[in-house]
Amino acid sequence: MNRPGEQKLKHLFQPGQIGNFKTRNMVKYGACCVSNYNTRDGFITPRELARTRVIAGTGCGIITNQGAYPDPLGEGKSYFRQIALFDDKFIPQFEMIAGYIHEFGGVAIQQILHAGRYGGIDLGYCIQPSVVPQTLPHFRPPREVNKEQIRLIVSQHAEAAKRAVRAGFDGTEVTSFMGYLLANFNSRFTNQRTDEYGGSTGNRGRFMRELIDGIKQATPDNPLVVRLNGAELMDRWGGNTEDECFELMQQAVDAGVDMISVTVGWQEAPESSIGRDIPPGYWNYLSERAKKAFPGTLITFGNRLPDPRMADECLRDGIFDFWEVCRPLLADPELIHKAAEDRLDEVRRCIGSLNCLSRLFRDLPYTCTMNPALGHEVEPEYQVTPATVKKKIMVIGAGPAGMECAITARKRGHEVTVFDKAPRIGGNLYAYAINDLARPDDLLSVISHYEVVAKKLGIEVRLNTEVHAKFMRSVLHQYDVCVVAAGARIDRERYAHLPGAERMLDALDVAHGRVKAGQRVVVVGGGKIGLTLAESLRKHQGAEVTVVERDKRIAGDVKPSFKWRHASWVEELGIPCRTSTRLLKVDAEGATVVGADGVETLLPADSVILATQMAPAHGLFGEFEWMVDELHGAGDALIPRGLEQAIQEGFRLGVRL
Amino acid sequence: MTAAGAATSAVAGPDAAGGAGGAGAALPSAQAWQAAAQRRPDLFAPLDAGARVALLARAQPESMLLWQVEEAGVAVRAEPFAGYAASGADIALACDDEALAGVRAAASDQLFETLRAGIRSGHIVCYILRRRCHLEERGFEELLTELGFAFMGACR
């Protein structure tokens, strides 16, 4: 505890213990989701090994390796490229991972993940305690397991645990999170059996008790962690109440589990548990209840608790014993080190966009909106290495693409100056953040990160400075490289032919606060900009808002994991959305539109806001082509898309300049 | 191939007049169910012939009301319920008594808003009986979106 942050967060950085294993601090890296980086037949790849080496170096006291399925058929396999541990042939790569974790001083835990209702991804069916159909289209139709299969599954878990320990892991973990096999037995929603494995809470918990007993017998000297729901969020559909969840935890305690990881929600739960709309700390009460109810068992928790300072307070207040954290470490693998060094202002926060899960549900490897290197650790091209030739770089645009590029290039030793015509860093992300109904703090933290890091790295940021041809002539031969990351603007030209087009307000002007909309508003464009603005005007300004969208659906450019949020917000806020509808004209009365049925309608409005397609900043490339040695572009200036692409492109350009 | 314009056609089945749902909960009348489909050609026109959507009482279901897409359009059928897998439905809307009363009341108006709200509140469980690729091929995207499945398989 010599580093300055360790003194400040002394509860977090105190040493701990699990079983016979001492931990350097009270942080557990949680196996929050499967990476999908591995082979289709369950072998760990070099890509995975490189990622886990980074994870091993995060500084956590306990590191949980991602879930491996334990059965040769793959009934427990939930993702195409999930790792397996049903045979000794897999052990060598697990040995390497355990070795990495120990090399960095962590206690190594291997998770065993039988996905149950969410499994059988290659098989066309899944197994469950009872035949309860799926409620999400991603998963496979169910088959009921018999008692012989239950015994086999228990023994497969025990064998997988033995293999993990033989590979060098210190302990194992079984998970019910978020609706996997263990949860399926525990829950009233999916367990409708009439034998000794169904019915009462005691009977439903029998599988879990047998599982714990089987693993503890197989690996008596190694701690066992069980991830259990404090709340399923499935009770509206007949799932367990919170009280029942805690009855099941009691059974796990009585069965001799060493640590309970308290979790929240199922994948198919009709409400959000970890998304950006849930405030940090929201679910702490579940952990607190577990800690009070089971004082003799270690409790670990971290759902929607991304901040080490909050975690330190929770430890101080006895809300849990270990802070379980995963996604914040995907976003910034240096999080714990930065906390220890009192550099939390530099942290790149997880913003809860759930890009990781959105990709998994499209059977893709996970990536992170905030961490462009995640999943590319094995590729030298993604490493920030000293530049061979030091250059003077000008970056036009202080949005995410420009700042990411500037910071990465600066870390490589280049001299970097950022120009932006706006009075602040952030570009259009700032406008989006201040209108966001979910968690403006999350998105504003991205901007704050750029401000702090740019300052610490000595990047000159010249705000209120528009770069155009005349300006470029004034700095001729002063820079070796120009990066155009000036973002995109609303494409008014597409609507210029419409009568009254000049009356329309620009969505970005309104969103930035440069122009004020009235109280009766029509927003033309039902994508993320239009919807965010419409929701904000309705909620914060009390305006009557109607959204007009040409497409047959709204939210076409919104990340899949957040579409539902906009859909429910417009409903809750009473914002009519006219889809398959085109704008015809704008006049003093409002906007005239035509629907798919050909009927023209006047939508009365004092403000008509254009929030449709964005136009890139291509013009700048033509203007600057003969003025600088190297000319590059990044982010929306090339193709208008979103935050993730802006960050990825800025970084990728920064590492190769 | 899609059902032509979702023109609703035959009303068939043993309980076509409605009424037999499950213990204490009656399904809407077939006529009301047919009219509900007729009002939303945007949802039913993309569905391939053979697509089936079941409505039933979740507790002790005895019969189900089906929207069944045929070459001539959407037909409504009432059939005995022999289990989800045996129902032949692509999706099944299993309602509690409160939700079923709401659905009956809303069948002539605001039906899909009611279904969506019921799913969100937990009074209706929308069971997905086919895989995503099958549903997409069969043209279910519009209908599922209307029911609130903005993301076809998501963790929130």
End-to-end span of chain A in angstroms? 39 Å
Please give the CATH architecture of the largest domain in chain A: Alpha-Beta Barrel
The first-to-last residue Cα distance of chain B is 34 Å
Instruction: Please work out how many helical segments of chain B DSSP would assign.
Output: 6
Largest interface: A-B, 37 and 31 residues
Class computed from helices, strands and strand pairing of chain B: alpha/beta
CATH architecture of chain B: 2-Layer Sandwich
Question: What count of structural domains of chain B?
Answer: 1
Instruction: Work out the strand percent of chain B.
Output: 15-25%
Just give the CATH class of chain B.
Answer: Alpha Beta
Output the number of helix runs of chain A.
22
CATH topology of the largest domain in chain A: TIM Barrel
Specify the helix fraction band of chain A.
Answer: 25-40%
List key phrases describing it.
heterodimer, A: 657 residues, alpha/beta, TIM Barrel, Rossmann fold, FAD/NAD(P)-binding domain, eight-stranded parallel beta barrel, 22 helices, 18% strand, B: 156 residues, Nonspecific Lipid-transfer Protein, Chain A, six-stranded mixed sheet, 6 helices, 6 strands, disordered N terminus
Describe this entry's structure for a reader.
The complex is a heterodimer of chains A (657) and B (156). With 657 residues, chain A is an alpha/beta fold. Chain A has 3 domains: 4-360, TIM Barrel, CATH 3.20.20; 386-488 and 616-654, Rossmann fold (3-Layer(aba) Sandwich), CATH 3.40.50.720; 490-614, 3-Layer(bba) Sandwich (FAD/NAD(P)-binding domain), CATH 3.50.50.60. Chain A is built from 22 helices and 28 strands. In chain A, helix 2 (46-56) runs parallel beside helix 3. Chain B is of the alpha/beta class and 156 residues long. Chain B has one domain: Nonspecific Lipid-transfer Protein, Chain A (2-Layer Sandwich), CATH 3.30.1050. Chain B contains 6 helices and 6 strands. Chain B has helices spanning 30-39, 41-44, 97-106, 111-121, 132-138, 141-146; strands at 11-12, 52-57, 63-70, 73-80, 91-95, 124-128. In chain B, strands 1-4-3-2-5-6 form a 6-stranded mixed β-sheet. In chain B, helix 3 packs antiparallel against helix 4. Chain B is globular, with a radius of gyration of 14 Å. The termini of chain B are far apart. The A-B interface holds A 131, 133-141, 178, 235-237, 265, 267, 269-275, 354, 357-358, 361, 552-553, 555, 560-561, 563-564, 566-568 and B 42, 83-85, 92, 119-123, 125-132, 135, 142, 144-145, 148-156.
